[in-house]
Specification:
Layout (H helix, E strand, L loop, with lengths): L1 H27 L12 H8 L3 H18 L7 H25 L7 H25 L10 H4 L1 H17 L9 H4 L1 H33 L1
Helix pairs in contact: 1-2, 1-3, 1-5, 3-4, 3-5, 4-5, 4-9
């Protein structure tokens, strides 16, 4: 348990530092993904919290702090569901970034560091910490379905706000450019990936739990 708490403390510190750095850059008006001409500061802050990358890193930071600072973490269903959301969400963040977003980016300096921390370093650290010393028995198959609800709510919010403001945080969600059938098909593929990773994590967790017992 002590080793797990220390590992999650490292993840929490790195994720928190990455979020603070990216928020500071957004506050200062630096480009975020496809923002060529950044909008007013208030709109930049709203957009910042609308990125799945930011939300998944926030979940990783929050659940990692919970594990690091508590002797009895993740005992409630809500905390376990959030833990699964953090773990699978950050894995999806890394995968989608690598295959869909990385070729579109051209960053340097602090922007490059923030991007790599949020999309590469934190996903690798979070998944590695869970695989090696993570708390066992917290990823339960009966709760995988609940973990899908937050990403679905985020998607609905993103599409509704995008239709109203003409801003979509990721190019593949731009319904104006690609049409809703194509966007929903892409979302369906990501949802399948999310569920597959969640079910796979539950099976791995069960096997690792048996090895420890």
């Amino acid at each position: 348990m002590l080793t797990a708490r220390r590992a999650h403390l490292v993840v929490a510190l790195v994720a928190s530092a990455a979020l603070i750095l990216q928020f500071w850059l957004v506050w200062q008006g630096h480009a975020v993904l496809d923002d060529v001409d950044p909008p007013a500061r208030g709109e930049r802050v709203i957009r910042f919290f609308g990125y799945f990358t930011v939300l998944s890193n926030l979940l990783v930071a929050g659940t990692s702090w919970a594990v690091a600072l508590s002797s009895t973490p993740l005992e409630s269903r809500l905390r376990r569901v959030l833990y699964v959301d953090a773990l699978i969400g950050i894995a999806v963040t890394g995968i989608v970034h690598w295959f869909l977003l990385r070729p579109l980016l051209s960053l340097d300096g602090a922007d490059w560091w923030a991007d790599k921390l949020l999309h590469v370093v934190v996903p690798l650290l979070a998944v590695a910490a869970w695989l090696t010393v993570g708390l066992r028995g917290r990823v339960r198959r009966g709760e995988v379905g609940w973990a899908v609800i937050p990403p679905v709510l985020w998607l609905v919010y993103t599409l509704v706000r995008g239709a109203a403001t003409d801003f979509y945080p990721y190019p593949f969600l731009d319904a104006d450019a690609h049409g809703y059938p194509a966007v929903l098909a892409t979302c369906g593929a990501v949802a399948v990936l999310f569920l597959a990773l969640a079910w796979g994590a539950a099976r791995v967790d069960l096997r690792l739990s048996a090895q420890r017992s």
